[in-house]
Amino acid sequence: MAEHARHPGARAEAIAAWLLALPALLLMWAMLLGPALAVLLLSFTDWSLGEPEIGWAGLGNYLQLADDPVFWQSLRNTLIYVGVSVPATVGLGLGAALLVESVGRGRAFYRAAYFLPVASTLLAMALVWEFMFHPTVGFVTQGFRALGLPTTDWLQNPDTALLALAVIGIWQNLGLAMVLFVAGLQGIPRDLYEALAMDGADGAWERFRRVTWPMLGPALVFVVAIIAIRSFQVFDTVAVLTEGGPNKATEVLLHTMVQEGFRFLRTAYGAAITVIFLVFTLAVTVAQTVLLDRRAHYG
Fold this sequence. Notes:
Blueprint: H1 2-6, H2 10-42, H3 60-66, H4 69-102, H5 107-119, H6 122-132, H7 139-146, H8 161-186, H9 190-198, H10 204-215, H11 217-232, H12 236-242, H13 253-263, H14 267-295
Helix pairs in contact: 2-14, 4-5, 4-8, 4-11, 5-8, 6-12, 8-11, 11-14, 13-14
């Protein structure tokens, strides 16, 4: 009250600010939170696409999910995919950022070259990767043969199909991780490196260990969260290259959700899978962010 008494216009400014923000808040509810709430409510029904009536099913869809081996297989495959692609993408993205920043000339070219897969249409690129993984004339197969290593039908072998898709995901997200790390590297004060050099520790490893890595903490938190979310959303390559096969070896949550909801028209069951997907993605992302945020240095 004392604050408002000293500044009579403060209350009016606050009301005006809320009024100006109201359209954006309503749009956010309508476009983001509204559909999420609708999916949540739909998951407790027995509605199928095209049916005129809708009935309450309670936890029936979730109980059915608990007994569905395809759901558990897709969840396992999704976790394996994320567990492979996220660490590899973050590590390679950091290495690419360090290499690009160490180049004296042509930095803009290398940044654009690394970022090109992110801007490319993944459906078109998936066809290129399908040729690269061809069991006889593919570039990957030819490379393995040149090194004297065993080859296989990468996309049709249950032991390698999911890893092959993870390689495509790493290739696609590498440029995004690199660009974000480059932004973090450019935000590190140069005087920290100068102070380290004055202490007599001017080696590349010492510069990375004592300055670069600690100061990249905030960027690392953001990169891991973004790459994890994008990895959980894998769908295009599965739909185009494997369709969940062979023998459900590449079945992931989003593909299962689309199949159940739009191919088999089990809309409510697909909504239940969507809810599980959203909750699981949010939980894993928050857990990763919290764990990394505790180690991050914000200076």
